[in-house]
Amino acid sequence: MASTTDFKNGLCIEYNNALYTIVQFQHVKPGKGPAFVRTKLKNLTTGKVIDNTFNSGVKINIARIERRQYQFLYKDDMGYNLMNLENYEQIPLQEDLLNTPELMKDGQELDVVFHADTETPLYSELPPFVVLEVTYTEPGLRGDTTSSSSSKPATLETGAKIQVPLFINTGDKIKIDTKF
User: Fold this and answer.
1) In angstroms, rounded to a whole number, what is the distance separating the alpha carbons of residues 22 and 118?
2) Closest among 68, 79, 56, 158 to 122, alpha carbons compared
3) Which residues contact 71 (CB under 8 A, 6 or more apart)?
4) For the chain, where are the E strands, in sequence order?
């Protein structure tokens, strides 16, 4: 058990029978009345952000979460099969728990966040950037920048389709931000 004085960004708490992480908080002490804490909480299962106000000194249950390194092996009808890099244990992970599954290739390392008490996976995160090869894109025509968007479609080695600048060709490796 903890109180509102222990709040900090990133703290994981149990609230309304769900797990939330504190995105932002502010202690407010008005001229009249008791102090309170205004927070923004992000649900770890749905990703929805809510605003909530706690009275100062309220007791809160802190949830323990663990971040573990996994490696993507393959995809089948059970989901995405991952291997723990410490003990080589393999687990299947559903697609809805992955933030950008279309950017994962075999051997890709990612972090999986678990609720430590129940050992259930909550979500996973790829590294901030991944480097992928362009397997197909139309050749860019020189001087073809008359349109407002000077980009063209490209297919990556994972099968994902994205828009790239005109100078990117088939066989080029590009660095992609996974937080898009």
Assistant:
1) 21
2) 68
3) 82, 83, 85, 107, 108, 109, 110
4) 2-3, 12-15, 18-28, 36-43, 49-55, 59-62, 65-76, 79-84, 90-93, 109-115, 120-125, 129-137, 151-156, 161-165, 173-177
- Give the model confidence (pLDDT) of 1-41 as tens digits: 888 889 999 999 999 999 999 999 999 999 888 999 999 99
Contact by Cβ (8 Å): 66, 86:
no
User: Which CATH number applies to 129-177?
Assistant: 2.40.50.140
Write the DSSP symbol of residue 149. Answer: -
Q: Which CATH architecture has domain 65-125?
A: Beta Barrel (2.40)
Domain ranges of the chain: 2-62, 65-125, 129-177
pTM, full prediction = 0.77
3-state SS assignment for residue 118: coil
Written as six digits, the tokens of 129 are 């950037």
Q: In what order do the strands lie in the sheet with 151-156?
A: 161-165, 151-156, 129-137, 173-177
- Alpha carbon distance 51, 46 (integer Å): 15
Question: For the domain with range 2-62, which CATH number is right: 2.30.30.30, 1.10.3720.10, 3.40.50.410, 3.40.50.10230?
Answer: 2.30.30.30
